[in-house]
Amino acid sequence: MNRRSLVLALLLVAPLGCGDTTGSQRVTFAVEAAGIARDATQPLTFTTDQGWTITLTEARMALGPLYLNTLRPLESDRRSPLRRHIEDFLIPSAWADGESHLGAGRIVAQVTTQSEIDVLDPTLTALPGGGDGIDEAALTAEAWFFNRDGALGGAAVRVAGTARKDDQEIPFAGALVIDASVVSTGGSLDEARKVRGIPASVTPTEGGALRVRLDPRGWFDGADFRELALGTLRDGRYRFTPLDNVGRAFLSRSRARAVFAITFSPTR
After folding, report:
1. Is residue 42 part of a domain?
2. Model's pTM, two decimal places?
3. Are the CB atoms for 129 and 228 separated by under 8 Å?
4. Range of the domain at 259
């Protein structure tokens, strides 16, 4: 049992306060995940802040574990869009959401399993294992990234598509792999794995469903794909890495809080 599971287990067996008849009841719930709600018969196409029109042909993410916390969202979430973009690009989300910016809070629910999510599929799909916790209001969520085999090929996030701007058309592919190369100076692998402070104003209830939608449309904000075209095509695509500006943008933006939209339905 890991540290967070132990903390929640102790919380669930703790006695209620004298005369307290509300909340603190143990609950289990379903967990459903998908990409953004959209017309699945059409490709997912969007324009970045740098004017690149992106059409994604693949977008997969390993989701889980996930924790619901009483911690309030960061005050910086109310920054202007321009300031948020600049600061999130310069300070990747996994580090901006680190322990020095957020307190510990208190975990009230957890999803301990990991599942591969097709981020291009808008259909909510139930994840194995569901979640459990207590019926106490949460304000934020914390998501952890772990590499996964299968279609993800040992990555935590994998993506492919085409970037277009003016007369350029650049097919690309790449992945987020959580390893020592993504750890900031003085940081740790655990800090690189997690995104904290995700807005999640939800109260888990017995038999309900925690719903997570993943939005890839900001993954390439700040990226200039022209750099990729200086490289070599491999299997018809240019591959970005953490050493180029596209890979650095993806490293930061694929772990941003804005990727996650978390709600709870009292019924499935």
Report:
1. yes
2. 0.83
3. no
4. 25-265
Structural contact between residues 151 and 116, judged by C-beta atoms closer than 8 angstroms: yes
Helix, coil or strand: residue 33: strand
Position 14 in a domain: no
Give residue-wise pLDDT tens across range 67-90. 999 988 865 445 555 655 555 554
List strand residue ranges (DSSP E) for 115-250, in order. 115-118, 125-126, 131-134, 138-144, 157-165, 168-176, 194-202, 209-214, 238-239
Structure tokens at 75: 């005050």
What's the whole-number average pLDDT of the chain? 86
Which of the four pLDDT bands, split at 50, 70 and 90, describes residue 4? low
Give mean pLDDT, residues 190-208: 95
Residue 15 lies in a domain: no
- Please count the structural domains in the chain: 1
Residue 186: per-residue pLDDT: 83
Q: How far apart are CA 181 and CA 173, in angstroms?
A: 19
The CA R_g of the chain, rounded to the nearest whole Å, is 19
Question: How many other CB atoms are there within 10 angstroms of residue 91's CB atom?
Answer: 15
Whether 8 maps to a domain, the answer reads no
Cα(160)–Cα(251) distance, integer angstroms: 14
